[in-house]
Specification:
Number of strands: 23
Oligomer: single chain
Largest sheet: 7 strands, mixed
Strand content: 15-25%
Distance between the termini: 66 Å
Structural class: alpha/beta
Radius of gyration: 25 Å
Strand order of the largest sheet: 15-16-17-14-13-19-20
Shape: globular
Helix content: 25-40%
C-alpha cells in the first residue's frame, strides 16, 4: 500500500494515487489501467485513479461474500450500535468530507455539506432497523397452527453511483443495505472517487467488520462484472436513463434484483395565482444550484401566459446576481460543471435553441472566472419561448440552463408534463389548494412539490420516479429500501401433542 493511498483515507483533498478498499484494507489493486481525476474548477489533474481488474472484482466480491454470511447472523443490536457510531462520525467529519467533494466535483462547500446532511438522514432512518424489521405473527390460524413471517438479507449487494452526489447517493444505499444484514460493494463514479474512501474509513472506525463495506473503483468493465457475477445478489444504480436501462436489463438477465434510477426532465409550473417572488427565488436556486447537476434540478418552467412576462423579468434579475466561482470561495453560489465534454454539450444545446428561435434571456456561454480560466465554467442561462421540439427541452441538459415554455393554463401544463418520457420530479407554484390537488393527482410523476421545487422525500419515505426515470419496482431508501435489500420468509408451524392424531391427509390441507 502506498502512502498516497493512505493519505486518501486521511481525507486530503489532493492525492497522487487513489485505489480500492477491499476486505478492510486499502489497495491499488492488480489492474494496470488508470484514469486521471480532474478538478473541474481548474481543469487540472489532481490524482491518478487505479481502475479495477477482473482479479480485483473477484477479490472484492469474495471478501463481501464471506462477510455477508457472518454479518447476516449478527444481532440487530450489534448492527444498530455500529450505525449510531457511523452517524456520529459522519457528523464529526462533515467539513472534511465536503472539502473532498468540492475538490473533485466542484460544487460549492455549502452544497456539499447539504448533500452530506441529507445522506445522514438515511443513516438515522437505518438506525431504527430494529423497528423496521419487525415481522408478523398470526396465532391459531388453524387448530394448533401458527404462522409468522420475517425478512432476511439478500446477501451481497452492489451500488453503482453517479458523480453528482458522491456522498449522498452512496448513503441512500449502504446504510439500509448494511442495517438489513447485507454486505455492500460501492462502485463510485470515476470522476470524484475520493469521498468513497473517506466513507470506508468512517465505517471502519465505527466498527463495521471487514468486507461488509467495500469500495471498488472502476469503469464499465467493473460495472459489467458486478452485473453478472454469480455472488452478487442485488444491484442499486443511479445515473442516466440509457445506462439505467442497460443495468436493469443486464442484471435482471443474470437473475439479480435491480433498482435502477434514471434521468429526469423536471418541470415546475407557475400558475397565475402564485407568489411570483417566491417562485422566482426557488426556481433560480433549483435550476442553478450545483450548476444544475442534480437529478431533481428544475430544468423546465411551464409559465402560464398571464404571468409569464412578469416571471421572466424576476428570473432574469435573480440569475444575473448568481455568483459563479471556485467552490471554496465563500461568495460562490455555483461552481463549474464536471467535465469539459459536459461544458461543450451544454454550450451546443444553448446554441441550438437560439438558432431554432428561442429567446436567450440570460446567456452564460461566455463566462470566464478570473483565476480559473481553464475551469469548466458556464454561467446561468435562461431560455424563453422554447418549444418541445427543441433539444433544449428534449435532452437532459444536466447544466445551469432553465428552459421556459409558455402554456395557457394548468390543463396544458399537465398535458406537457405527462407527454414527457421522464417522470422523476415536478412542482407547482400556486396559492390555490384546489389547483394543487388537481395537479398532484393527475401528473404522472413520482415526486411532487407544492411550492417546493426540489421535492426530495425525507428518509422515512422513498425516493424514485416513474416512466423512464425508474427501471425496477422499488424506489430507493425508506420503506422501499428495506424491502429491496431483504426478502420474505413465512413459517407455518405446529407443535403436536403426542397423544393427538396426526390428521395427515392426501387432500390439500384446509384450515379448520
Amino acid at each position: 500500500m502506498t502512502s498516497t493511498t493512505t493519505n486518501a483515507m486521511e481525507g486530503n483533498t489532493v492525492t497522487d494515487a487513489i485505489g480500492h478498499y477491499i476486505d478492510g484494507a486499502l489497495t491499488l489493486g492488480t489492474g494496470e489501467r488508470t484514469q486521471q481525476v480532474i478538478n473541474p474548477a481548474t481543469g487540472r489533474p489532481t490524482a491518478e485513479l487505479h481502475l479495477a481488474s477482473t482479479a480485483d472484482v473477484e477479490a472484492a466480491v469474495a471478501s463481501a461474500r464471506r462477510a455477508a454470511d457472518a454479518w447476516a447472523q449478527s444481532s440487530l443490536t450489534a448492527r444498530t450500535r455500529i450505525l449510531f457510531r457511523f452517524r456520529e462520525l459522519l457528523a464529526e467529519n462533515a467539513d472534511r468530507l465536503a472539502a473532498v467533494v468540492t475538490a473533485e466535483h466542484g460544487k460549492v462547500l455549502s452544497d456539499a455539506r447539504g448533500e452530506i446532511s441529507r445522506g445522514q438522514e438515511v443513516v438515522e432512518f437505518a438506525c431504527g432497523i430494529v423497528e423496521l424489521l419487525k415481522g408478523q405473527y398470526s396465532d391459531q390460524v388453524s387448530t394448533g397452527i401458527d404462522v409468522y413471517s420475517f425478512r432476511e438479507p439478500l446477501g451481497v449487494v452492489a451500488g453503482i453511483t453517479p458523480f453528482n452526489f458522491p456522498v449522498m447517493v452512496p448513503l441512500w444505499m449502504a446504510p439500509v443495505a448494511i442495517a438489513t444484514g447485507n454486505a455492500f460493494i460501492l462502485k463510485p463514479s470515476e470522476r470524484d472517487p475520493s469521498a468513497s474512501l473517506v466513507l470506508a474509513e468512517l465505517w471502519q472506525l465505527a466498527g463495521l467488520p471487514a468486507g461488509v463495506f467495500t469500495v471498488l473503483q472502476g469503469d464499465k468493465s467493473a460495472v459489467d462484472a458486478l452485473l453478472t457475477h454469480p455472488d452478487v445478489d442485488g444491484i442499486s444504480f443511479v445515473g442516466s436513463t440509457p445506462i439505467a436501462k442497460y443495468v436493469h436489463e443486464k442484471a435482471t438477465a443474470a437473475g439479480k434484483r435491480v433498482q435502477a434510477l434514471g434521468g429526469a426532465k423536471n418541470h415546475a409550473v407557475v400558475l397565475e395565482d402564485a407568489d411570483l417572488d417566491l417562485a422566482a427565488d426557488h426556481l433560480i436556486a433549483a435550476a442553478f444550484g450545483s450548476a444544475g447537476q442534480r437529478c431533481m434540478a428544475i430544468s423546465v418552467t411551464l409559465a402560464v401566459d398571464a404571468i409569464a412576462d412578469a416571471l421572466i423579468e424576476k428570473l432574469k434579475e435573480r440569475a444575473t446576481d448568481v455568483v459563479v466561482a471556485e467552490g471554496t470561495r465563500p461568495e460562490a453560489d455555483m461552481g463549474p460543471v464536471i467535465t469539459k465534454a459536459s461544458l461543450e454539450r451544454i454550450q451546443r444545446i444553448v446554441s441550438e435553441a437560439e438558432a431554432d428561435g428561442a429567446q436567450l434571456v440570460v446567456d452564460g456561454r461566455d463566462l470566464t472566472v478570473p483565476g480559473n480560466e481553464d475551469g469548466y465554467f458556464i454561467g446561468p442561462t435562461i431560455i424563453d419561448r422554447a418549444e418541445q421540439s427543441m433539444s433544449a427541452y428534449a435532452e437532459e441538459i444536466f447544466g445551469p440552463v432553465l428552459v421556459v415554455v409558455r402554456v395557457a393554463d394548468i390543463e396544458e401544463a399537465i398535458t406537457v408534463i405527462n407527454s414527457n418520457p421522464y417522470g422523476n420530479g415536478t412542482a407547482v407554484f400556486t396559492d390555490s389548494g384546489s389547483s394543487a390537488r388537481v395537479f398532484q393527482r393527475r401528473v404522472k410523476v413520482g415526486m411532487i412539490g407544492i411550492n417546493i421545487p426540489l421535492p426530495v422525500p425525507v428518509a422515512w419515505h422513498s425516493f424514485g420516479g416513474w416512466n423512464d426515470s425508474l427501471f425496477g419496482d422499488l424506489h430507493i431508501y425508506g420503506p422501499d429500501g428495506v424491502r429491496f435489500y431483504t426478502r420474505g420468509k413465512v413459517v407455518t408451524q405446529r407443535w403436536p401433542e403426542s397423544q393427538h392424531p396426526s390428521n395427515a391427509s392426501f387432500a390439500f390441507p384446509a384450515s379448520s
